[in-house]
Design goal:
The chain is α+β, with helices and mostly antiparallel strands. The protein is built from 19 helices and 23 strands.
Amino acid sequence: MDEEADVDAKTPRWSAVHMRALERSGLLAKGDQDQFDRLVGLARDVLGASAVFVSLCHGDEQVFAAQRGLAPELFANGPGLPLAHLICRHVIAGRRPFVVEDLATDVRLVGDPAAGASEFSAYLGVPLFVGGELVGVLAAVDAAPRVWEEADLSRLAAIGRIAGDEIEMRLGETKWRTLFEDMQESFYIAEPIRDAAGQMVDFRYLDVNPAFERLPGRAGAVGRRVRELLPGSAETLIATYRGVADRGETIRLESWTDGEWYEVRARRLDPDRFAVTFHNISERRRHETLAAEADRRYRTLFDSIDEGFCVVEMIFEDGRAVDYRYVELNKAFARQTGLADALGRTMRDLVPDHEEFWFETYGKVARTGEAVRFRQRAAGLEGRWYESYAFRLDGAAPNRVGILFNDISERVAAEDRRGLLNFELAHRLKNTLAIVSSIVTQTLRSAQDVPSARRALIDRIQALSKAHDILLSGQRDAASVAAIVAAAVAIHDQSGRVAVLGSPVQIGPKASLTLSLIIHELATNAVKYGALSMPEGRVEVDWHFREARDGLPALLVIDWREKGGPAVERPARKGFGTRLVEMGLGGGDGAKVEMDYAPDGLRCRIVAPFAEIATADEAEAG
């Protein structure tokens, strides 16, 4: 069986009774669509779709009970269209939602004439059920291809369930009206039977209509007493009608009798007779309950979503939006805004300094009917960021706007942090590459051969790498001097002959990398020519602050002292390592490097303005 035949085979075939009820209900009439108009408009606004419609199954046709956004010429010949020409037939065939992101590319619709003829590109449809029977489709379509979110399907399905309840209620009311017309009301005339005090203690049926006799236990009622005919209900019925028979009261009430609800009317005809008319209203009561439940579910739909939702009534002065009043709120509203007791109050009353942007934006939506989606910060609401969707509510009350919104402050903060991190990474990478470039250039320039250049490059880049590790594991944009020194000498100090003595100090990233390279060069020279070249040699690394004085800023002073090594002499020529050390940690007032080639060991003092090297705002590498 091909797909079209399969779809036709699965088309709902209602019984004659169901079809007659549908036809008599008015749901198929072109001009009788108000009962679904609110739900269709709501679905279109919430989904932001180009069009939304409700169609009902009627033979080989789908009858459009309500729609928003479809071209009027589609219905030039009436509200019904052949099922074979509609994408809705796939919902009916599968009895489940049918989702299409692009009609032109969906493999399920290749060769489908309905897809080729459609003016829309995206389709989302859900089935409508009444008592387990598929009765129609609620669908949303978009002019452009669209990726439907899971939330879109969930919201359309929730509105579809409410539409199904509306259909069931309408059909139920029609069935009740038809039953009433065919059967007529039950009716009887009775005479009271009184005791010696004149109070009715029983009554006898004088006349009844056929509808009454068709009720269970009522056959052959004429001439019989109620205590004889209905012994189980007699006391209740006598008490109910005693005021009518004895005092001439007229009553109208709803009564629960024999498991059914009845509407009862009774009046006295004369002192010796009273008449009772009643009919079964169980169906009506059930559908009143259904209507209340549908209303509750409609409200629950908005109270259960995480997004805030509100309806505002715009206030205009001289054509300009100056304020708005909250007329409907969902439960998430207070959580999303921090505003308590907002219902019935105006925004300027709640937040006097609320920005004009909000009034202008919602005022334009109310005036033009053009929905708008935007992202904006609300300074008056604790600086929260919101992602909002605003749409006009067309109805009896003018100037009303529905607003669906979500507090995205945490997301915006995360995006800002990510942007800052990317900037810092790029900045740090730029500086690091500049340092590496300088190291490579100077090492190759001063190296005697390729092997020594390779070894020196590896050691220096490893020192740079260790400094980066310290930066990443420490505080943001700062590293400990002690950690930098310890890491830089670790490769040359397996036996713990380097004493690190300074107090806790944090310096910025550029100064951290430079200090790591300087200490590495000093340690390398100590291993080759200085204190660490002999077993008894020792090195002390110390640092301290020098307070601001004599017009100089506060300074950080770092001392490298070797002892116990061979006698040292000033080198005849300066290599890259020596030049790197002598560059120090930076310029500025008071910055200097002192190299003392004392006979008992090298002493190096590095002085730098602390304010210059302690922050991340150091000068970029050139």
